[in-house]
């Protein structure tokens, strides 16, 4: 799932993606996809220019505390592969990709 139209905010020590004209979209991808190809698809899906946004996701700091997370940027092929691996290994439903306008 892609969430766009929001921003990361720190609220009482917890980082949360705050909606600001929020939109949710879905996208499927292969296990091995190049960063530029994936970002181009996301760009078309959320109607933003390729260089006008960042792709991020939340990753738990530890397996014992799933509520304590950090925000991770996806900026290259390696970052994207880690996101896909985490999505395939740790979720029981769709993984969430957070799009943040630059």
Task: Report on this structure.
By secondary structure, the protein is of the alpha+beta class. The protein has a single domain (2-101), classed as Ubiquitin-like (UB roll), CATH 3.10.20.90. Helices cover 25% and strands 46% of the residues. The chain is built from two helices and five strands, in the order ββαββαβ. The chain has helices at residues 35-46, 77-90, and strands at residues 2-11, 14-25, 53-62, 65-74, 97-101. Strands 2-1-5-3-4 form a five-stranded mixed sheet. It starts with a strand and ends with a strand. 15% of the residues are buried. The model has no long low-confidence stretch (mean pLDDT 84).
Notable characteristics:
single chain; 102 residues; alpha+beta; Ubiquitin-like (UB roll); 5-stranded mixed beta sheet
User: Got a strand count?
Assistant: 5
Examine the coordinates and then state which fold CATH places here, giving the name of the CATH topology. Ubiquitin-like (UB roll)
Provide the CATH top-level class.
Alpha Beta
Spatial arrangement of strands, main beta sheet: 2-1-5-3-4
Q: Structural class of the helices, strands and pairings?
A: alpha+beta
Q: Count of helices?
A: 2
Tell me about the largest β-sheet.
5 strands, mixed
Residue share in helix: 25-40%
User: How much of the residues is beta strand, in percent?
Assistant: over 45%
Taking Cα atoms only, what radius of gyration do you get, to the nearest Å? Answer: 13 Å
Low-confidence stretches: none
Could you give the distance between the termini?
20 Å
Overall pLDDT metric: 84
Number of domains: 1
Which outline best applies?
globular
